[in-house]
């Protein structure tokens, strides 16, 4: 065998020997388990539910080994927390809770809805008494249902249900942990001491080691830009600002007749308000149709007066559409009331600046007709009743007459009066002089 052939054969053998060594790491990486770390942050609401539904679907499609919910929330809506809890329980993947900072109110319920509860040093869980949107304690019906769900979630995790109930009712006391006039809130140490937490870990990698997933690859599902925008817009404070800007801008458009700029701003503000709430699942498209119908009725009222009937109907439709779009109808009415006050302030401030601009003179007469500017108003002719004169032109019924030595526009009582006829002033109506033959 020649030397080149020997070299070629040696090269082929070397490549064949090295191929398994190159391929093995790739195969090992393909078999490496995947764990999704999904954050639960901010208010628990319908927009968070939409995000979690998408995140769970991505984790399931990726054949992940587990999902870890990294929780830091002050709570939120009971309705949204119930649906998120159902989502967690229905997941085919094991779901674990890791309280990074706070799991309060609805956050405590979500932490208990998973397979196991883990906490980080410095974290806390509890204070789960349900309250209305205006800060008042919920009625007994809601309180009882919420307590039952908290107890059931704790029992599902093998925790003491009485501890979960003490987070809901002040009257339930856990010795050495809370008093009769306080809601139970546990620090991470207290939760560990009473075995309410399944473990305390400084980080996700430490928790993965506890779950026998130390070699797992961690992934997350980022919030889409539309989801971020929806969560911002559905914040009650931000939503109220959008409503106020929308009301103020549309009002200024009607007052000034400039529908291009202020009208566009108003429509954009309401479009963002309704779009964010619809995307977050808080409202349906029917609120947009109701809002559009209300605006249409208000426009009709502006051009076809109906003694306020159409205007009231339009205003009611707009108001109801805004209230229905909110997370709760009561919250919507409060947002609308606050927005109306803010809108009045915005209108006053805006019009003060607009009056200083050159555009204002195109809308409103800038100069007054005063004597200083040479304007002389019509004189009062009431003292001429009884005065006599002679017609200069025929009166058919209007014409000219000379009365008290002055040429004046006069009218007859309705009959024809020839020229050069003696007449007498019988009455005046403002500057209108009525005469009859003498």
The chain-level structural class is alpha/beta
What is the distance, rounded to the nearest whole angstrom, between the alpha carbons of the first and last residues?
A: 151 Å
> If you average the pLDDT, what whole number results?
83
Percent helix among the residues? 40-55%
> In this structure, how is the largest beta sheet organized?
7 strands, mixed
Helix-strand topology string: HEHEHEHEEHHEHHEHHHHHHEEEEE
**Could you tell me the radius of gyration in angstroms?**
40 Å
Low-confidence stretches: 17-29
Q: How many beta strands in the DSSP annotation?
A: 12
Described by the principal axes of the CA atoms, the overall outline is rod-shaped
CATH class of the largest domain reads Alpha Beta
Helix run count: 14
Please indicate the count of domains. 3
CATH topology of the largest domain: 2-enoyl-CoA Hydratase, Chain A, domain 1
Strand content: 15-25%
For this structure, what is the CATH homologous superfamily of the largest domain?
Answer: 2-enoyl-CoA Hydratase, Chain A, domain 1
Question: What is the correct CATH architecture of the largest domain?
Answer: Alpha-Beta Complex
Please tell me about this protein's structure.
Helices cover 48% and strands 16% of the residues. The strands form two sheets. Strands 1, 2, 3, 4, 5, 6 and 7 form a seven-stranded mixed β-sheet that branches. The protein has a five-stranded mixed barrel with strand order 8-9-10-12-11. The protein starts with a helix and ends with a strand. The radius of gyration is 40 Å and the shape is rod-shaped. The longest helix has 28 residues, at 3-30. The model is unreliable at 17-29 (pLDDT under 50). With 438 residues, it is of the alpha/beta class.
């Amino acid at each position: 065998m020649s030397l080149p052939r020997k070299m070629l054969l040696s090269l082929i053998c070397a490549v064949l020997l090295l191929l398994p060594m190159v391929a093995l790491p790739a195969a090992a990486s393909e078999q490496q388990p995947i764990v999704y770390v999904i954050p639960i942050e901010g208010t628990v609401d319908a927009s968070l539910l939409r995000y979690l539904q998408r995140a769970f679907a991505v984790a399931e499609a990726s054949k992940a080994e587990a999902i870890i919910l990294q929780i830091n929330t002050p709570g939120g809506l009971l309705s949204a927390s119930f649906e998120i809890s159902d989502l967690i329980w229905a997941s085919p993947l094991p779901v674990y809770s890791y309280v990074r900072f706070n799991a309060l109110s609805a956050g405590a319920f979500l932490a208990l809805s998973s397979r196991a509860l883990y906490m980080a040093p410095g974290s806390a869980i509890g204070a789960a008494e349900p309250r209305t949107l205006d800060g008042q304690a919920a009625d007994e019906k809601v309180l009882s249902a919420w307590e039952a769900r908290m107890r059931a979630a704790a029992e599902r995790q093998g925790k003491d249900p009485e501890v979960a109930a003490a987070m809901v009712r002040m009257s339930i006391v856990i010795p050495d942990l809370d008093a009769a006039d306080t809601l139970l809130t546990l620090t991470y140490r207290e939760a560990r001491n009473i075995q309410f937490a399944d473990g305390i870990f400084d980080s996700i990698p430490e928790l993965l080691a506890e779950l026998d997933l130390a070699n797992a690859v961690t992934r997350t599902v980022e919030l889409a830009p539309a989801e971020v925008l929806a969560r911002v817009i559905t914040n009650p404070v931000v939503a109220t600002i959008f409503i106020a800007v929308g009301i103020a801008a549309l009002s200024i458009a009607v007052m000034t007749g400039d529908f291009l700029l202020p009208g566009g701003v108003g429509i954009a503000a309401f479009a963002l308000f309704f779009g964010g709430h619809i995307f977050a699942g808080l409202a349906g498209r029917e609120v947009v149709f109701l809002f559009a119908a209300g605006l249409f009725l208000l426009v009709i009222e502006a051009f076809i007066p109906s003694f306020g009937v159409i205007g009231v109907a339009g205003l009611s439709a707009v108001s109801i559409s805004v209230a229905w779009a909110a997370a709760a109808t009561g919250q919507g009415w409060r947002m609308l009331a606050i927005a109306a006050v803010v809108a009045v302030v915005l209108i006053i401030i805006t019009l003060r600046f607009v009056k200083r601009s050159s555009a204002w003179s195109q809308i409103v007469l800038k100069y007054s007709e005063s004597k200083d500017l040479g304007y002389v108003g019509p004189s009062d002719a009431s003292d001429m009743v009884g005065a006599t004169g002679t017609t200069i032109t025929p009166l058919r019924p209007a014409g000219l007459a000379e009365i008290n030595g002055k040429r004046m526009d006069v009218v007859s009582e309705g009959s024809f009066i020839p020229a050069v006829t003696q007449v007498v002033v019988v009455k005046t109506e403002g500057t209108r002089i009525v005469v009859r033959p003498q």
